[in-house]
Amino acid sequence: MKIRPLPPMNSLIVFEAAARHLSFTKAADELNVTQGAISRQIRHLEEYLGKELFIRANRNIALTPTGLQYYQTIYSALLEVSQATAEIKKWQGEHQVTVVTTNAMAALWLLPKVATFQQNEGVDLRILTTENILDLHKMDCDLALFYSKAPPANMKVTPLFPEEVFPVCSPHYLAQFQGEITPDKIFGKSLLSLDESQKDWINWAEWFALVGYPMFKPKNRVNINNYPLLIQAAINGQGIALAWGSLVDDYLKSGALVRPVETVLRTQANFCMLEPTDRGVIPSSVKQFRNWLLEQLPGQVGQKGLN
C-alpha cells in the first residue's frame, strides 16, 4: 500500500533541527545552510500541513501545541530511520573487506583466486585499483597488495613473494626462430615494454644490465602502460615481455606463455601485503580474508592465523 500523505522530506529534517534547538539560527548552523533557507522550509511545511508549527515572537520561537505533537512524532520516526541506517552501515563495515591493489595484481594474481574465498558467505569483497602506492593514504582500505621497493610509512608490511623477473612469450612466437635460439635472436626482434611511467617496475635496460646481457636493440618495440595488457600482448604473439614470477604462473602452467631463456633476475624487493597501523579494532571479516590470502602463497609463506 502506498504511504500517503507524506510531507516534503527535506522540510522534516529542517523542522526537527529547528524544533530541537528552538532556533532557526542554530538549525541553519547544524545543517550548513542559511537562516533564510530554514525559514522557507518551515513555511513550506506549515503551508503543506495547513497549521502553524512555531510561535514567532521577535527573534525567539516556540512550538505551538500542534508543532510539539508533530515534533515528538517526527523525532521518533527519524530516530528509527537513523538507527536502522546505522545498523546497515555497521553490518557493511563488519562484513565488507576493501582491498587496494594494482591492475596487475588484481587481474593476474588476486581475481583468479577469489572464487575460493567467495565460498565464505556473508563477506563482501571490494577491490579498488591504483598504480600509485602513494594513493594509499587517500584511500580507505583494510588491506593493500603492492609490489614495492620502499613501502609507505604507517603500514604493517607482510612479504608475500619475492621479485623474480624473466622474459616470456607465446609458444607460437618462439616457434618462428630456427636453429639455435640465442639471446641476440630472441631479444633482437620485438620487445614489449611497460611504459616508463611505471617507475617501480624493472625495465628492459635494467634487466639486461643486472643479468649481464648486452643492451640489445630490437627491430620493433611496443610500449604499453598497463601490465595485464602487456602480458596479453605476449600471449597474442606480439613479442617478448618481462614477467614477474607468481603473476604469470597460471599462464606458464597452461602453456599460454613459455620462457625462451632460463635467465632469471632475483632482487631484494617483494610483493607485499600492507595493512594500515591506525585501524583500531580489526573486523573478523578482514582477519578471515587475510588468513585466506596467506594460504594462497607458495609454501604458505607469511604470518598466518591472525586473531
From TrEMBL:
<dbReference type="InterPro" id="IPR005119">
    <property type="entry name" value="LysR_subst-bd"/>
</dbReference>
<keyword id="KW-0804">Transcription</keyword>
<feature type="domain" description="HTH lysR-type">
    <location>
        <begin position="7"/>
        <end position="64"/>
    </location>
</feature>
<protein>
    <submittedName>
        <fullName>LysR family transcriptional regulator</fullName>
    </submittedName>
</protein>
<dbReference type="GO" id="GO:0003700">
    <property type="term" value="F:DNA-binding transcription factor activity"/>
</dbReference>
<dbReference type="InterPro" id="IPR036388">
    <property type="entry name" value="WH-like_DNA-bd_sf"/>
</dbReference>
<dbReference type="GO" id="GO:0003677">
    <property type="term" value="F:DNA binding"/>
</dbReference>
<dbReference type="InterPro" id="IPR036390">
    <property type="entry name" value="WH_DNA-bd_sf"/>
</dbReference>
<dbReference type="InterPro" id="IPR058163">
    <property type="entry name" value="LysR-type_TF_proteobact-type"/>
</dbReference>
<keyword id="KW-0805">Transcription regulation</keyword>
<dbReference type="Pfam" id="PF03466">
    <property type="entry name" value="LysR_substrate"/>
</dbReference>
<keyword id="KW-0238">DNA-binding</keyword>
<dbReference type="InterPro" id="IPR000847">
    <property type="entry name" value="LysR_HTH_N"/>
</dbReference>
<comment type="similarity">
    <text>Belongs to the LysR transcriptional regulatory family.</text>
</comment>
<dbReference type="Pfam" id="PF00126">
    <property type="entry name" value="HTH_1"/>
</dbReference>
